[in-house]
Amino acid sequence: MTAQTLDALLSENVSGRAVLVRSDLNVPLDGSTITDDGRVRASLPVIQKLAEAGAKVIVMAHLGRPKGEADPKYSLKPAVDRLRELSGLNVVLADDVTGESAQKLAAELADGDVLILENVRFDARETSKDAGERAALAEEMKALTGENGAYVDDAFGAVHRKHASVFDIAALLPSYQGDLVATEVQVLKKLTENTEHPFVVVLGGSKVSDKLAVIDNLIGKADKLLVGGGMAFTFLKAQGHAVGSSLLEEDQLQTVQGYLDRAATEGTEIVLPTDIVMASKFGADAESEVRASDDLEGGTFGASGLGLDIGPDTTAAFAQEITNAKTVFWNGPMGVFEIEAFAGGTRGVAQALADSAAFSVVGGGDSAAAVRALGFNESNFGHISTGGGASLEYLEGKELPGLTALEGN
Ligand code: ADP
Ligand code: MG
Questions:
Q1: Minimal-distance CA residue to ligand 1 atom 9
Q2: Partners of 151 in beta bridges
Q3: Which letter does DSSP use for residue 62 in this model?
């Protein structure tokens, strides 16, 4: 079965109906300041369409990882303020998820207005492993919609979670796929079915263990796997290179070695950095120098040096591979792009992607943020995914509960 679309819902009369929308408002914050509002912007169109059609829009979203109870640090307030500013709609924020405040505001909601429930993860039942607990919360969510409610899932970033607001609620209300989820799925499909070759995958970021399953699944499918970022050091070490004090996951060395062996026989070339920007320490005021990958400890900083970016030769080589590709998936920055001295590799890869005519997908919260933080125009990229973990799990070939739930009705 395929999921019903938002257009199907809009073609019914939604005026006066309460529609629960699961959005992804999980923005990065510095205190209470949003450092990248990409997810708020991406969530706007569906909320706006429903409001314009006269629905009473009730938005559910999470932010960060609170411990199942209210915690002001994780309030949705900054995201809600931004949404109000960008949309020009009447937007109110409840003090709780499904409690007194949410119930009162939901009952008072006028057609075309928006109520945002407080961080759904303030209620421990949202993420509970116990299906009964989640279902009880989902019932309370449903009750906010009164008689004739509907549910729209527009939070691609959460579809890999079996959570009350993503999975259980879809069993209780007529459910629809939001435009964002529909677009993401359509795009990711192109990376798994009838993919145009050469298919080049660029992986970076801090932890190999986060990305093992996707590497595993892409060997034999991608033509080239370019590995940068902190995870490159586990690969370099597996090849016998000393990596100084760079990020290293010792317990993954064997697995990574296995990937290198498999790739060699299954037609995927794993391309590792040939040079690295080594730093004296982690920080904006660190000294740094470019070292060849087979001599990372030979420089000024010796074994205490930290590899914080891929070097210029590697950046040029990766850019060339991207230029030659027909399809590119990129997840994870090539270095500590938050510090200008270590942003060169990420910038080079982003530039090559922006210049390329390939079908390209950027997945991963930090990679998407990097693209924006480094001043690139998003429209130069094929698609910037809002869901890091979700896009990875899709490429891992896993079933995503939030998507399956929508197909079931
Ligand atoms: P994404 O969110 O795009 O999937 P990750 O969360 O896996 O990416 O990783 C992003 C983080 O990885 C960034 O904060 C970046 O600073 C860090 N990083 C990249 N390269 C290195 C490195 N060589 N050493 C330490 N951290 C790194
Ligand atoms: Mg991340």
A1: 205
A2: 20, 175
A3: -
Q: In what order do the strands lie in the sheet with 56-60?
A: 91-93, 114-116, 56-60, 18-22, 150-153, 175-177
- Which numbered ligand comes closest to the C-alpha of 245? 1
Reported as a single tens digit per residue, the pLDDT across 261-281 is 999 999 999 999 999 999 999
CB-CB contact of 25 with 40 (8 Å): yes
Cα(199)–Cα(296) distance, integer angstroms: 30
Say if residue 66 is preceded by a cis peptide, omega within 30 of 0: no
Q: Out of 280-284, 320-324, 385-389, which region has the weakest mean confidence (pLDDT)?
A: 385-389
Task: State the amino acid at position 166 in one-letter form.
Answer: V
Find out whether 382 and 188 touch, Cβ atoms under 8 Å.
no
What is the Cα–Cα distance from 178 to 368, expressed in whole angstroms? 21
The stretch 73-86 carries a mean pLDDT of 98
Closest atom of ligand 1 to 368 CA is: 3
Q: Which residues line ligand 1 (CB under 6 A)?
A: 204-207, 210, 229-230, 247, 307-308, 331-333, 335-336, 338, 364-367, 388
- Judge whether 84 and 47 are in contact, CB under 8 Å: no
Q: What residues sit around ligand 2, an ion, with C-beta below 5 angstroms?
A: 365-366
pLDDT at 397 (0 to 100): 85
Q: Give the bridge partners for 58, in sequence order.
A: 20, 115
pTM of the model: 0.84
CB atoms within 10 A of CB 206: 16
Residue 307 has φ and ψ, to the nearest 5°, of -80, 115
β-strand pairing of 150-153 with 175-177: parallel
pLDDT at 223 over 70: yes
Instruction: Taking each helix axis as running N to C, give the angle between helix 388-395 and helix 179-192, from 0 to 180 degrees, rounded to the nearest 10.
Output: 40
C-alpha closest to that of 26 among 60, 52, 64 = 64
Distance CA 368, CA 44 (A): 18
Using one digit for the tens of pLDDT, what is the confidence trace for 18-57? 999 999 999 989 999 998 898 999 999 999 999 999 999 9
312-315: long-range pairs with CB below 8 Å, 24+: 312/275, 312/344, 312/348, 313/274, 313/275, 314/228, 314/273, 314/274, 314/275, 314/276, 314/345, 315/344, 315/345, 315/348, 315/349
